[in-house]
Design brief:
The protein is an alpha/beta fold and 285 residues long. It is built from eight helices and eight strands. The strands form three sheets. Strands 4-2-5-8 form a four-stranded parallel sheet. Strands 1-3 form a two-stranded parallel ribbon. Helix 1 crosses helix 2 and helix 6 packs parallel to helix 8. The radius of gyration is 26 Å and the shape is elongated. It starts with a helix and ends with a helix.
Length: 285
């Protein structure tokens, strides 16, 4: 466009073609416009501050007198909400004082809190030691805890390799049809690699559902008098098209096609429905 503009303005009488000088001049104009555009965008980014979202109103939990136990993975530990509690960086658990479990308000407010959630946790980590550079004790001790009044947890997302799905779909435009987690590989549940949307994802969810069918009744036996709440997972991606505001969220979101995001949301909805069904069967929420 710059070359054509230069040709029309500088050599209006030219009969055919674009001269070398016109091309060079047009290229220079294009580069200059690109620099101005990038510099303008950078300046806007440096001035733009996303609206501060106030902390959500936390629930007032009444009638809880005994201990409250917070179990689960990064969604319950508060991954990303720095600073983390002392000692939890070395273990990789990354427990945050801003995690939802730490923001619940109780009436009366003398409730003892037991914070066991750990980033990266899988289902086995609830009742078994976690193998890592720094060993992590099981989140649940084997004995019965009849004094506990409330238990919350999110678990199973790492068994379904949520984070690797995000990376795979960032790198590939056809991730729903591509083999996942990779040719010749299997996930934590032993499901052979296959198309994410039609084979590996549904088969892995069913395997995890079988694990839930064993886990949830065991939790009910361990905490016989507690209100046990299993929390579903928020969608990995929002629906709809990415906005045009040059912020990080929109820039990254445009790397995932709308069809990919909707396909993954569909898989997640099925996964959450499975969690709900298994919880109801075990007599927990």
């Amino acid at each position: 466009a710059g070359a054509v503009l230069a040709w029309r303005r500088m050599w209006p009488g030219a009969s055919a073609g674009i001269s070398v000088m016109s091309g060079v001049l047009g290229f220079g104009v294009g580069v200059a416009l690109a620099v101005v555009g990038v510099a303008g965008s950078a300046w806007y980014r440096s001035q733009y501050v996303a609206p501060r979202v106030p902390p959500p109103t936390v629930a007032m939990i009444e009638g809880i007198g005994g201990p409250y136990v917070a179990l689960g993975d990064s969604y319950s530990a508060g991954e990303g909400l720095r600073p983390f509690l002392p000692g939890t960086t070395a273990t990789g658990c990354h427990r945050s004082p801003m995690a939802y479990s730490q923001r619940l308000v109780f009436e009366p407010d003398e409730v003892e809190r037991v914070f066991r959630a750990c980033s990266g946790a899988v289902i086995d980590d609830l009742f078994s030691p976690r193998r890592s550079v720094v060993p992590v004790d099981p989140q649940v001790a084997g004995e019965v805890h009849a004094d506990v009044d409330l238990v919350t947890l999110t678990i199973g997302g790492n068994n379904a390799l949520f984070s690797k799905i995000v990376v795979a779909c960032f790198n590939r435009s056809d991730c729903l049809k591509a083999d996942f987690p990779g040719k010749g590989q299997t996930g934590p549940e032993g499901v052979p690699s296959g198309p994410l949307a039609t084979r590996w994802g549904p088969a892995t969810a069913l395997r995890i559902g079988e694990r839930y069918a064993e886990l949830f009744p065991r939790l009910r036996q361990t905490y016989p008098n507690a209100r046990i709440v299993v929390i579903g997972y928020p969608y990995l991606f929002p629906d709809g098209r990415a906005g045009f505001v040059p912020d990080d969220c929109a820039a990254i979101l445009r790397r995932f096609s709308l069809a990919e995001r909707r396909g993954i949301r569909h898989l997640q909805k099925q996964f959450n429905d499975l969690i709900y069904a298994r919880a109801v069967e075990a007599g927990i929420e």
